[in-house]
Amino acid sequence: MEWVRGETIGHGTFSVVSKATPSNTSDFPALIAVKSSDSYGAASLSNEKSVLDSLGDCREIVRCYGADQTVENGEKLDNLLLEYASSGSLATQLKKLNGEGLPESVVRRHTKSVLQGLRHIHSNGFAHCDIKLGNILLFGDGSVKIADFGLARKINGDLTASKEGVEIRGTPLYMAPESVNYNEYGTAVDVWAFGCAVVEMFSGKTAWSFKEGSNFMSLLIRIGVSEELPEIPVELSEDGKDFLSKCFVKDHERRWTAEMLLNHSFVAVDLEREDFDVTVKGEKEVLASPRCPFEFSDWESISSSDSQTKYQPLDSPVERFESLVCESFPDWSVVNWVTVR
């Protein structure tokens, strides 16, 4: 695919993400995202491409259109061509809300979508290993997709311990106890991390209270050694609290899987039919378009005590038509007509 690089929209540890315009828009979207890296991040991009190719198509996972290499300003770059998310990530959306979280109805929808993506990842033998709001992309239609598979790894049976020695894989605020204590990175780490993401999505605050600039080793001790668990928001519904309690189980063998969590009542929502509400808590409700007269929020049926008219069922079409006939005629002389079709 030939493409033209546009503005930069994101930065990673070893990569830069830019908008790009494909030359051939008949086979590809008008806009794509290109993740580029020099030689230091080439291995991560190669791993991401390999994982995405293995996972195949899944509507809850960002699409990959291929990879190539370019030379720009005298520097050789590896590029990964990805689906473009016009609304950025859930992390960037929350930053715009000034510490507020999303309404629980929206959190439930996003939660179900991400769980469906995780189920697909896990069932294909992979663990993402870096689930966080910054890696969950938001699209213009309100859907979300999992992105950034640079740290994803293949899981071989029950063997989850890394063979690469002691490593910090992922983001400390989202790390699971088994990763901290035993250097294990299986599918269960994604469930723990996603529980932290759900807390942040709803409350606007991280699941662990941690000040920027603090020694992150103290955080890892709290996660791995102490009995402390991430704080579950008190404002969350009982269903939501129970859902998170299934994610925040220190023993990863007793922690619920993505498949099990998809059967939890917290995510019993219809992603196809339920109206998508993006109202921020504390703001005036944004209403979806009504589909019938009874869906207007301010519509009320008022029966007047002074009215003497009572409903009488009419048996035949003739009777129904006669009930509409009156002696007055409409005034068609009004000049302020508006052409609508």
Question: Would you mind describing this structure in some detail?
Answer:
The protein is an alpha+beta fold. It folds into two domains: about 5-85, Phosphorylase Kinase, domain 1 (2-Layer Sandwich); about 90-155 and about 165-270, Orthogonal Bundle (Transferase(Phosphotransferase), domain 1). Helices cover about 25% and strands about 15% of the residues. The chain is built from nine helices and nine strands. A hairpin with a 2-residue loop joins strand 4 and strand 5 (about 75-85). Helix 3 packs antiparallel against helix 5 (about 185-205). The longest helix has 20 residues, at about 105-125. Belongs to the protein kinase superfamily. It comes from Arabis alpina. It holds the Pfam family Pkinase. InterPro entries: Kinase-like_dom_sf (IPR011009), Plant_MAPKKK (IPR052751), Prot_kinase_dom (IPR000719), Protein_kinase_ATP_BS (IPR017441), Ser/Thr_kinase_AS (IPR008271).
List the main descriptive attributes of the protein structure presented here.
single chain, 341 residues, alpha+beta, Phosphorylase Kinase, domain 1, Transferase(Phosphotransferase), domain 1, 2 domains, five-stranded antiparallel beta sheet, two-stranded antiparallel sheet, 9 helices, 9 strands, 27% helix, Protein_kinase_ATP_BS, Plant_MAPKKK, Ser/Thr_kinase_AS, transferase
Quick recap:
The protein has 341 residues and is of the alpha+beta class. It has helices spanning 42-55, 90-95, 104-123, 177-182, 187-203, 216-224, 238-247, 258-261, 317-322, and strands at 3-11, 16-22, 32-37, 64-72, 75-83, 126-127, 136-138, 144-146, 153-154. Helix 3 (104-123) runs antiparallel to helix 5 (187-203).
